Amino acid sequence: MHIHILGICGTFMGSLAQLAKALGHRVTGSDTNVYPPMSTQLEQAGIELMQGFAPAHLQPAPDLVVIGNAMSRGNPAVEYVLDNNIPYTSGPQWLRDHVLPGRWVLAVAGTHGKTSTASMLAWILDYAGMAPGYLIGGVTRNFPTSARLGDTPFFVVEADEYDSAFFDKRSKFVHYQPRTLILNNLEFDHADIFPDLAAIQRQFHHLVRTVPGNGLIVAPANDEALQQVLDQGCWTPTQRFGVQDDSGEWVAELLSADGSSFRVLHNGEPAATVHWQQTGHHNVSNGLAAMIAARHVGVTPSITADALAAFEGVKRRMECLADVHGIRVYDDFAHHPTAIKTTLAGLRAKVGGEKIIAIIEPRSNTMRMGVHKDNLGLACTDADAVLWFQPANVDWALDDVVNHSPVPSKLLRDLDELIHCALALAEGPTHMVIMSNGGFGGVHQKLIHQLQVHSL
């Protein structure tokens, strides 16, 4: 079968393309944002990529078109599919129909930490010899690709609450029918499609309704928004977890302030001790949730602890790109004030008094709309300085964020000027954290190049 994917370079659709290729299909795709690491993965998999959405890409007609949720009516390729009656489906529905039947699905949902937690869980099962399939919305360093079919019934999926397609406004995750479900956390996000938190909670409850009575739901003990979801009705055993002083059946006690080591207690009794490369309370929480889910399919906490010790992290999640004479440059996918805050707090706990410079492009749909603008400045209190970049397509000006910032901040509208300012701030041991959920104009490599030039 020839499958053409519209919006193929999105993290979800790119992973889907690799699964379709592994099933033996001829896979092509088109997109406007063709850049690494996903474009590299797809090309290495032998998947032909086309720039833009020209109807010519669909001539001769493929057997099936999988339409990404970024596509809308008026898109020339979408209109061509409809006008010519070419069979089409959404990405989540294709996954449900062609990959997940008969599988034990382990799904990871929540506003934050889905990619990291799903990566940890897939790696734990792989380390334990369970050879799972997986689809992760990012590139984990423990696997060569972001998706694979696997050799056993187990399948780990990052379960996103974003809508499925222009013709299916349900959240992606309602298609997956997990037996093991992690609910990491829940906050208001995706303001472009959800009017309020209650609308997101409604979708999460649709997901809860699909988990069988002999399954398991793993949820934090102290997340009010998630508790409200579960209070609407839950027909599945639930195990609760927390970090440090939180309550719950499972608790992680920090052995180091930065979260690089922690002890796991189950009903008050020691279950495992983890020493790993990750930092931050949020990653401790992610690792604990993955441990509980893995236990549900037979992996002991001690084996999970060994697996987490060998977990290498995920690209674009505090990924250290370079260390130029003590100045480190990180790439982070932060898309929400909470993600910015927890990431910077984790780094601060790790580096102590060393300088942290946050370089932030508010690029996610919700941040572009200004929904979280009142919280952005406060999210950066662990940085010594913040450089804010004003993209051309942001619907509001960042001047108020800068003017009311609790730490020294500056607003830039030119990438070259931004790099110049970053260089001027770098002295002694410095950590530059570049935060964006897009390519950010290639600023990462441009900054590293300039650091290298200035160090000669």
UniProtKB/TrEMBL annotation:
EC number: 6.3.2.45
Annotated function: Reutilizes the intact tripeptide L-alanyl-gamma-D-glutamyl-meso-diaminopimelate by linking it to UDP-N-acetylmuramate.
Mur ligase N-terminal catalytic domain span: 2-98
Example GO molecular function: ATP binding
Domain (Mur ligase C-terminal) ranges: 316-437
Enzyme class: ligase
Similarity annotation: Belongs to the MurCDEF family. Mpl subfamily.
Top-rank taxon: Bacteria
Swiss-Prot/TrEMBL keywords: ATP-binding, Cell cycle, Cell division, Cell shape, Cell wall biogenesis/degradation, Ligase, Magnesium, Nucleotide-binding, Peptidoglycan synthesis
Biological pathway: Cell wall biogenesis; peptidoglycan recycling
Example GO BP: cell division
One Pfam match: Mur_ligase_C
Cofactors: Mg(2+)
Domain Mur ligase central, chain residue ranges per copy: 108-294
Entry protein name: UDP-N-acetylmuramate--L-alanyl-gamma-D-glutamyl-meso-2,6-diaminoheptandioate ligase
Residues binding ATP: G110, T111, H112, G113, K114, T115, S116
Catalytic activity reported: UDP-N-acetyl-alpha-D-muramate + L-alanyl-gamma-D-glutamyl-meso-2,6-diaminopimelate + ATP = UDP-N-acetyl-alpha-D-muramoyl-L-alanyl-gamma-D-glutamyl-meso-2,6-diaminopimelate + ADP + phosphate + H(+)
InterPro entries: Mpl, Mur-like_cat_sf, Mur_ligase_C, Mur_ligase_C_dom_sf, Mur_ligase_cen, Mur_ligase_N, MurCDEF_pg_biosynth
Annotated organism of origin: Cellvibrio polysaccharolyticus
